[in-house]
């Protein structure tokens, strides 16, 4: 009885593995960052340093994981904790004098009707230059609730990702935030941008 | 700066299934002339006595986002698209329904014979007469077309002279308006490390007035006091809130007791001056 069960389990595992390989061969399975697990974006993690294992672990030179700002969720704030180092000294306009991103990958511009006199009297659009971003996660950590609105998350860029069988980031990630999903699912959720 | 010291006197309610507890949300606080404390949350209004005992509770048609009590004892509940008005016996008396003017009512107050509703969807304060007829809009006449509320809540209170004090967190300040919508002044500015300022992207989130001006902030959550002129008077409470709290409702009574709600633990915290 138990031998039979073991044999059935082995056959099932082989069949599953074969299915995975077939999907893999056709590029149908991709890695993604589960934002609800990622230390930088999941709720409830406050007062901790940003995790940069996506930057340091990825086998791609500049990590295939990049920060993405979902504009529809962004508060378009004057003082964005993901853009400014809000702990830096305040300048004559009342703004923090330093930026947060070590690679200067985030830019901002006022949108709509502009008030040049009072920076706080404008909305701002924050854009991330993905050619500069290395996925260090600092902006993600500062954007998440309750400090921010959680509009910035880390995402795998499939035009950069080598889709390794054993993703080095997934091995390193302490929260098992890297997971594989079928490509159509990633496309459907808007997760994938294939370049 | 006044050396203002408060201590936590009582914790009321909490998260749970009991009648006196909240299941998902705790959104607003108000006091009536008898000292009963009203709290909005979930789809209910609950009334507690000064000892924190539940005295009554009743359902609202939609999730309750704000509560206020008028001088004649009527209880106003702010909801999406409407305000429900209950008489002193907690019976529904009227419903003001207006998807445009009452998109998402997160604060209610009274100025003279008029009713003020903080509409988070419209990022402004709407002023109505007692029959529910719109009179004017407050806080929308600026470059960004309203109050900057990334946190999704309009919060204001009205002082004894009828002046409206509104949180404008995106501008890191508290603004004073006359009932006709004239901006009378403001105080506050961004600061990361000076507690007199407002930190983060958008603070203060909530405001209450009773002699002093009390505000709450998020990340890290704290309760602070300012004079009517905007002079910082102190941090009244900070560590007692869950660090993930935001949009902390606050209500102050003339005796100096300040109520603030922990929006994660769904608990109402009462603070009183240490000298009291």
Query: What are the segments of chain A in which pLDDT stays under 50 over at least 5 consecutive residues?
Result: 1-22
The Rg value of chain A, from CA coordinates, equals 20 Å
Outline the biggest β-sheet of chain A: 2 strands, antiparallel
Envelope shape of chain A: elongated
Q: Please, what is the CATH homologous superfamily of chain B?
A: TolB, C-terminal domain
Please indicate the count of domains of chain A. 1
Following the backbone from N to C, one meets helices and strands of chain B in this order, namely: EEEEEEEEEEEEEEEEEEEEEEEE
Overall pLDDT level of chain B: 96
Helix-strand makeup class of chain A: alpha+beta
The CATH topology of chain B turns out to be Neuraminidase
Number of strands of chain B: 24
The helix fraction of chain A, in percent, is 10-25%
**Unreliable residue stretches of chain B:** none
Radius of gyration of chain B: 17 Å
**What fraction strand of chain A?**
15-25%
Strands across the major sheet of chain A, in which order?
1-6
Spatial order of strands in the largest sheet of chain B: 1-24-23-22
Helix content of chain B: under 10%
Number of domains of chain B: 1
Give the CA-CA distance, first to last residue of chain A.
Answer: 52 Å
Describe the 3D structure:
The complex is a heterodimer of chains A (195) and B (276). By secondary structure, chain A is of the alpha+beta class. Chain A has one domain. Chain A is built from five helices and six strands. In chain A, the strands form three sheets. A two-stranded antiparallel ribbon of chain A has the order 1-6. In chain A, strands 2-5 form a two-stranded antiparallel sheet. The longest helix of chain A has 24 residues. Chain A starts with a helix and ends in a 7-residue tail after the last helix. Chain B is mainly β. Chain B has a single domain, classed as 6 Propeller (Neuraminidase). In chain B, strands 1-24-23-22 form a four-stranded antiparallel β-sheet, with no helix packed on it. In chain B, strands 2-3-4-5 form a four-stranded antiparallel β-sheet, with no helix packed on it. In chain B, strands 6-7-8-9 form a four-stranded antiparallel β-sheet, with no helix packed on it. Chain B is globular. The two termini of chain B are 19 Å apart. Chains A and B meet through loops of A and loops of B.
